């Protein structure tokens, strides 16, 4: 038997650790810290993407399609092996950065992700294969595999050209692009289409195909946004702009396709879930518009010269689009209990810290005044996020114990 609520709490535990590591990173600018900043950055980013988001999405996919399959032992072996690799990265990256042990655990994680993709792609019940939701999930898994080319390339680049080569950064950007814009987004879209399907809301295949093809074209072409900082030939800018436009058009079709179902879902979703989905949809629109802006040479150069804009964007997508969507879907499937006041603490910390991050980038760009207590304030406001996640995890662990005792 697969205890999916337990898996959700494991994902939340990773999210809490990510938040604490984020606070530690910001404390580096407030007080001396006996640690290596870059090593902590590596740990922070790996646990964020491979711990909280990966485990959260995987738990949702299993909940939707595979609880009836009966191959739970195979899934659990893959799941726990994956967690061993994540814990290995958690215990090595902060102390040695990219070195033998951390690279070993990272490599093992990639192998585990291949096994997981194999499980999800081959054990799917036949009656789900033609569903719109599974088409999104299947594509997301393919992009997950494609994204792994980036980490494999990094090893070769470091061994031959070194980490100062542009190919080192391009390998990282390749990986992040297919993680943020393909694996995460398509998987979450698949979850939403699944909810529509279960509610009896049918979307015509022709209309879905148009959305799906536009989104995939946008994903592939917007990869060129990641190379504009090297000032490539004009063709690359054209392809990047097309990718940005395709994503906007795909988003328009997504809202058009799903809008009729909202009246039905309104009666099936709690006010908290509806609030979370509306917030994440708003940030998704902002994300796509910001991506299109970076196709313009001026903004591409701006984002390269002032990393705070990139950091702010990545946090916007991770904390605003992906994490809030995960909250909503985990609550919908009964895998998470989320009180509004806990979410408001999280949301306050997220919004205020985003404002400060983008302010720093704008201040450096425009030569604006930069107040002396900036980093202390950033630490204080950012602390609201791990506090809220800690409260959320505690509340869910207590709920689980109460349910166990009452049986």
Automatic annotation (TrEMBL):
Transmembrane segments annotated in the record for this chain: 12-35, 41-62, 74-93, 99-121, 141-161, 173-196, 208-229, 235-255, 275-300, 312-336, 343-368, 374-397
Keyword match Thylakoid: no
Entry annotated with the keyword Transmembrane: yes
Keywords: Membrane, Transmembrane, Transmembrane helix
Protein name: Cytochrome C oxidase subunit I
The organism of origin for this protein: Antarcticibacterium arcticum
Lineage, top ranks: Bacteria, Pseudomonadati, Bacteroidota, Flavobacteriia, Flavobacteriales
């Amino acid at each position: 038997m697969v205890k999916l609520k337990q898996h959700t709490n494991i994902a939340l535990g990773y999210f809490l650790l990510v938040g604490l590591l984020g606070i530690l990173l910001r404390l580096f600018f407030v007080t001396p810290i006996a640690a290596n900043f870059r090593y902590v950055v590596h740990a922070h980013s790996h646990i964020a993407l491979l711990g909280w988001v990966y485990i959260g999405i995987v738990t949702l996919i299993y909940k939707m399609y595979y609880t009836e399959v009966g191959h739970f032992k195979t899934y659990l072996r893959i799941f726990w092996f994956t967690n061993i690799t994540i814990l290995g990265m958690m215990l090595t990256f902060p102390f040695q950065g990219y070195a033998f042990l951390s690279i070993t655990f990272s490599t093992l994680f990639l192998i585990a992700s291949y096994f997981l993709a194999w499980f999800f792609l081959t054990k799917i019940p036949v009656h789900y294969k033609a569903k719109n939701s599974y088409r999104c999930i299947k594509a997301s898994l393919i992009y997950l595999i494609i994204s792994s080319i980036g980490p494999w390339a990094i090893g070769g680049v470091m061994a031959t050209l070194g980490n100062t080569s542009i190919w080192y950064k391009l390998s990282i950007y390749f990986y992040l692009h297919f993680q943020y814009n393909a694996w995460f987004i398509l998987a979450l879209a698949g979850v939403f289409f699944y909810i529509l399907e279960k509610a009896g809301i049918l979307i015509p295949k022709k209309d879905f195909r148009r959305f799906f093809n536009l989104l995939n074209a946008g994903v592939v072409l917007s990869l060129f946004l990641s190379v504009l900082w090297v000032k490539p030939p004009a063709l690359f800018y054209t392809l990047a702009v097309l990718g940005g436009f395709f994503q906007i058009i795909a988003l328009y079709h997504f809202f058009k396709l799903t809008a009729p179902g909202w009246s039905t879902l309104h009666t099936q979703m709690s006010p908290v879930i509806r609030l979370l989905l509306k917030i994440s949809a708003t940030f998704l629109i902002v994300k796509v518009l910001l991506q299109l802006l970076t196709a313009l040479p001026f903004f591409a150069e701006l984002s390269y010269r002032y990393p705070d804009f990139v950091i702010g964007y990545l946090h916007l997508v991770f904390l605003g689009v992906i994490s809030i969507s995960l909250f909503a879907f985990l609550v919908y499937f009964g895998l998470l209990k989320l009180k509004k006041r806990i979410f408001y603490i999280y949301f306050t910390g997220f919004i205020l810290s985003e404002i400060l991050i983008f302010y720093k980038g704008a201040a450096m760009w425009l030569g604006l005044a930069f107040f002396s207590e900036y980093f202390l304030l950033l630490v204080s406001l950012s602390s609201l996020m791990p506090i809220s996640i800690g409260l959320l995890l505690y509340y869910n662990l207590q709920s689980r114990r109460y349910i166990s005792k009452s049986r």
